[in-house]
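yo

u said u wanted the structure for the complex thing, so here. seqs first:
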Amino acid sequence: MRMSGTPKLSGTHKLAATALSLAILLLVVPWAIAASGRSDLYYTLTSVALLSVASGGVWLTFYIGRINIGQGAYALIGGYVSAILMVDYGVSFWLTLPLAGLFCVAASVVIGLPILKLRGVYFAMVTLVLTEVVRLLALALPITHGASGMVEIPLPGALTIFGVTLLPDFATLRNPRLAFYITAVILMALCYAGLYRLVHSRIGRLCMSLQQNEELASSIGVNIASLRLIAYAISSFLGGVGGAMFVAISQSIYPSSFTVTDSVNFMLNCFLGGLGYVFGPIIGTFVLYFGWDFLFQTGEYQLLIYSSLLILLMLVLPNGLLSLRLPSWRKG
Amino acid sequence: MSELLKVSHVTRRFGGLVAVNDISFAIAEREIVSVIGPNGAGKSTLFKLISSFLRPSGGEVLLRGERISGLAPHIVARKGVVRTFQETTIFKGMTVRDNVIIAHHLRSTASLAGFFLGSAAARRDEHQFGSSADEILDFLDLGGIKDEIASNLPHGLLRALGIAIGLATGPTVLLLDEPFAGMNHAETKRAVELVRAVRERGVTVLLVEHDMPAVMRISDRVVVLNFGEKIAEGTPAEIQRNEKVIEAYLGSEDETIGI
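structre next:
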């Protein structure tokens, strides 16, 4: 698992690239969808944005040298926390979003303390089981309403901060899909801006030092246990927030909303995009999601072709899709 | 000379095996002390006990009278006792300069949040770490290769990089694990000079080593282990004359102790 750092762009380049991508995502895409009448794409694109938020968390755990196949657990926990707070306690969705994330942080600290000592395949196996444990818990606990799940969760209300309405009540909107799409894109942008900053600050280098050699890291005075926990908590926060947002869109949650398959997909998104690139998971999620949908036409061969292509991609591009672009970036 | 590091009746058992048995010795400030012994004498275990990568079954290690054994390795490093590794343990995927910069971690004044937000203290730290890293690399003659990815370096330079990483932490005591292993004559000679130069920077050096001629040349004092016990301690000249030491090495490689 060798990873190179993301190539550095100059300040103005960065700003221009960010502005351009946001303009495309927030203006061009809605315009194109309106023009083509394919408003079903909103749901898919919103999903990609949210899944890439959760995948971003997994990517961060990869960055400290841990294979995390348990993000589905936190997405499910986050989803349930948001749903229960909204339905049972009447809390505003916008407040449940950070609360879901924070609940996942608390859970991840309790879970992470013992399991983050494990490395390699052992850590991966425990996290894999974690998703299943949370699913079974959701089935068994009274507060989650078992297999029947929670349905008819209200749409997000208005988002008001200091008397200023930032977002209107989604139920009053003609096109809540567009509102969800915009919210998800903003969430994704915030998440990746944070991750980018994290990775390019000293914390990123410290995480990288863990990934490469934990013994040496602790010999130079890095508190590896606490740094591992911080990275895992951030990862879980993103999983929880992504899950909570998903629940708001589908207005329902079941124990099967996020399963082991989803956990595996979050990990694959990171692999496919490139573990050495902060924005890898976005590309990975996009390609995986649309690739799967696109292959729907092949009917019964869908899974066969899909998995063969995945294996091929990993063989040809072991550093992910973004490694294709690396040479031109280095020159710039 | 005052006592800086003190190893006091340290014992370590692995199940029924006593790897290190009731070992005591002390190191004064700015001394170079070597621990030698045949294979399996318990050198590496003792090394790990001092750097707190292992917990002693009995006894204790003291730094300026304060107990450091049993603490987590990163805390022991913070107190000033820093180890290098026997294997070529470095951050392989980073450049040489980044390896040394990251090792300045202990000297940072800014918090993690400060680094995330890019606070003034963080920027000052970054700047200072960069120039300090350059200084250390030049000092160790690694300045010319500072932008190389560390995994591309040849063996001898990797060892020097290991020492650079150790120095960057600003140690009081630097523990070197077999710094001359696998080196040819010229490389060893250069490494010996390097260790002396490290001492000139005010750092106390404890090294565990196989290479007897190098040990005899470099050390102020030598501690000899055999079967987990200390069998001798003294200046290189005293050690070379010591009956027990000669006996311990006899039959195997008697010429290597430099007699």
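The two ends of chain B are 30 Å apart (CA to CA). Residues 91-155 of chain B form one domain.
cya
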